[in-house]
Amino acid sequence: MAIQWLDDIVEYLEDHKVADDRYILKLKQALEYVRELQRHEEKGRLDGGLLEAALDRLENEFRRLLVENSVPLPMSCPSSLGEQPCITPSPLPVAVIHKLQAILGRLIANSRLEKCISIYIEVRSSNVRASLQALNLDYLEISVSEFNDVQSIDGDIAQWGKHLEFAVKHLFEAEYKLCNDVFERIGLDVWMGCFAKIAAQAGILAFLQFGKTVTESKKDPIKLLKLLDIFASLNKLRLDFNRLFGGTACAEIQNLTRELIKRVIEGACEIFWELLRQVELQRETPPPSDGSVPRLVSFVTDYSNRLLGDDYKPLLSQVLVIEQSWKHKKFQERFLIGELLNLIKAIELNLEAWSKAYEDAVLSRLFLMNNHWHLYKHLKGTKLGSLLGDSWLREHEQYKEYYSAIYLRESWGKLPALLSREGLILFSGGRATARDLVKKRLKAFNEAFDEMYKKQSSWVVSEKDLREKTCQLIVQAIVPVYRSYMQNYGPLVEQDSSASKYAKYTTQALEKMLNTLFQPKPVKYGSFKVRQPSGKFNSGVTDQYHSSPTVTTP
Hints:
Belongs to the EXO70 family. With about 550 residues, the chain is mostly helical.
């Protein structure tokens, strides 16, 4: 008031020329002094600082009301977070909100709004952080250098989606409404700015940074699925994000969210369009030495069906639509279907090339038997199998039968001929001659059997049903002939001092050995190894082929 009076006096004297310049200059100096006093010595303005002390007490009361009514409360919420504890911010009672608004009115009148906002942001953001800490969010701080590929943090990515949804729909939603309730009389810009700072300080930026970290990880087919999971979480919360963080004050959150979505879409599309090339590049690698189903084959069949499933196909289609729209192109669903069918066609060409790489023709037959059965079994009754058609599936089933028959004929099927009865039924040379023939033929049989068993003991028939069927066919080809031969001619050598050399196996032992053939080896989980000529993919499982398709990729 004093400043205003002095200001009016100076203006009047200057306008009416009723005082000399020296006098007016002194008044101006006094006016400036009072203004300085107002700026730098607020506590000296009125009654030795009693007003300031009162205002300080109001600020303390403002903080106290917030702190005492901002205690996170645990509650059970199994539907949204599984076994994780859920924390919900305690709503401020209406009476408390009215008190806060009344205190704000007094403090704003005395130019203390910024201090009130600072207190509010500090208390409420701390409350949200305390709520989130109960969810064990340490994984949000992980860096790209701390994990090899997305599979190693698969559980974290799944939790990330649930935790982000809970944070947005419960914690930040509550803060958004509370900011509006407390600061609604002051204006939209104030309470939106307040909410934006709470959200940023409480942890929304850490959630977005984790998503970005995943996009920066090594490229791998499984990463496509994880990027689609992230896209699904963000897309599910799209309306909530637009409503809560759509204001100018949330520009940083908006920019980070847009950047994350862009990186997710571009990363997912890059991997998808590169899949066919990666499968084709694997054609240059050697086939599995044990004749089993290469990991590439088992992975691609399972992977393609997952991409066509209800969980991923809508997401992948949406991502591809967005990517094509950025390029001013129109996406059609047949592009996605065609690309996946091309993957299977590439697998067929790979199998043909791999089968020709074996030096052992029998192993090549086993390899083709294995893989044709795998394609038939794992694609029949699936969406991908339906797209390929019944005739395609029957063709692979018939190929399995064809190569199974050739395999048996060219390997174990040759052994019964070694136990020939020729010269034994109507022999004319006496018992000694018959014994020599039996010994010779049993020795030839044992040597052929041992050699074949030793070689094929390291071979693998991946599918249990095919393995059991193949062993059964071998047993049926060998054991009855061997049993009959030993029953008829075994006594000729069993009395010999070197009987164990010729009657080396009992029928039961022979059958047991044959039924233990082709057992799969333990394998690591993962996707196929990716090759690097394009420089686009740079990580994968090292030994991609020596595996059993009975173990599926997670």
